[in-house]
Amino acid sequence: MIQFLLNQELRSEHALDPNLTVLNYLREHVGKSGTKEGCASGDCGACTVVVGELQTDDAGREHIRYRSLNSCLTFVSSLHGKQLISVEDLKHQGELHSVQKAMVECHGSQCGFCTPGFVMSLFALQKNSDAPDHAKAHEALAGNLCRCTGYRPILAAAEQSCCGKQPDQFDAREADTIARLKAIAPTDIGELNSGDKRCLVPLTVADLADLYDAYPQARLLAGGTDLALEVTQFHRTLPVMIYVGNVAEMKRIETFDDRIEIGAATALSDCYEALNAEYPDFGELLHRFASLQIRNQGTLGGNIGNASPIGDSPPLLIALGAQVVLCKGETRRTLNLDDYFIDYKVTARQESEFIEKIIVPRASAEQLFRAYKVSKRLDDDISAVCAAFNLRVENGVITDARMAFGGMAAIPKRAAHCEAALIGAQFNNTVIERACAALAEDFTPLSDFRASKEYRLLSAQNLLRKYFIELQTPHIETRVTAYV
């Protein structure tokens, strides 16, 4: 059984189909049809809901953290122990919520189909920021698509509802909601079981290891932003899933003198602060990693584990010399990330083995790390090419080079010939041109609807040239740039 709060109503579910999304649960099982389906792939934001989770801050104070999510990509099993808020829940005692009033008064809605998603994104923004600036408002709304109008009136609604906000019914009930969430906090393995399909929800790494050993055919579910597409887009059935999002040990971020250890189930939005502090280019890339709804849901371990050749984080992690800790039963092994990827969608992970955490070396003054993403749109788009460069230069000589690319091969991959052309050479334009030529030996990219093979290779070479120019003239630096 799983338990969660539907606004303030306790829901206990056991016999649901584990392939059921929160979107369809709301619309078909509880009659809340305000949440809309636009794309069923996490691109349009029409299905945005907000999930509240019990959190404890550094001072030991308990509070509820509200996050916007795409309900079309969220399986119901991930709600275990949480609070689900949909657009119907905002109206209170016959009065619209302040974010709804702002959308009306600022004329932020036309046909209205996308409006519930915008309202929920604004609600999450209001809850998480006292006075959001223009950039935060854009970030909060970047995952919501309106086909009728411009965004100016919606941004005006964001300003009106978030600046000088007043307490609402959720604030008034916070103490009671905290008590109710504590009362339903999971204490044992949860489960949804419809007879022929099941999803198991462990709470510890040990339980996860045992379950995965017992069900090696199970699909591991973290954020689900990739896995859920098999259900919503390809109409496949997932007979057995194991949801890892309630394993607290795999959601920790720990900083040591020489490394950062990030649990594989840590949401990308939670990774931002630690990674941005060490590597600002990593932080910039995370801002362009899909939408806020996706970053609130998708995990760093999932972005690695799905072994996509166009995943944004693997090239950066490879260039930084990151490692993954793999767990199987009581056995753990640490593997360099560039050895994890074998072939297209093939990794070094063994049966019943899972990524427990990612180890990222801390930055040093000698490192010259930069990252770049080439995509057709600035926001919410998949890379055509993603490049990460990490050099060490001493007395004008390159002593180490790690150059990694996504979108250039069947796997995220280092450019071995390019690195060899750089190491031991003077850091100048001549050697950069030699390294650019060597990239043609490292990669024979494919052509697809995102880019031709010629465009990809030339872009990779130009990014290396850009890297060199920016290091020589840092005042013209423009990192993580999109090329249209």
From TrEMBL:
Gene3D superfamilies per the record?
A: 3.10.20.30, 3.30.465.10, [2Fe-2S]-binding domain, CO dehydrogenase flavoprotein, C-terminal domain, Uridine Diphospho-n-acetylenolpyruvylglucosamine Reductase, domain 2
PROSITE patterns per the UniProt record, alphabetical: 2FE2S_FER_1, 2FE2S_FER_2, FAD_PCMH
Q: Reply yes or no: does the keyword Iron apply.
A: yes
Which Pfam families does the annotation name? Answer: CO_deh_flav_C (PF03450), FAD_binding_5 (PF00941), Fer2 (PF00111), Fer2_2 (PF01799)
Keyword field: FAD, Flavoprotein, Iron, Metal-binding, Oxidoreductase
FAD-binding PCMH-type domain: which residues?
Answer: 192-365
List each copy of the 2Fe-2S ferredoxin-type domain by range. Answer: 1-90
What one GO molecular function would you report for this record? 2 iron, 2 sulfur cluster binding
Keyword Disulfide bond annotated: no
Protein name in the entry: Xanthine dehydrogenase small subunit
Tell me which species this is from.
Answer: Pseudomonas fluorescens
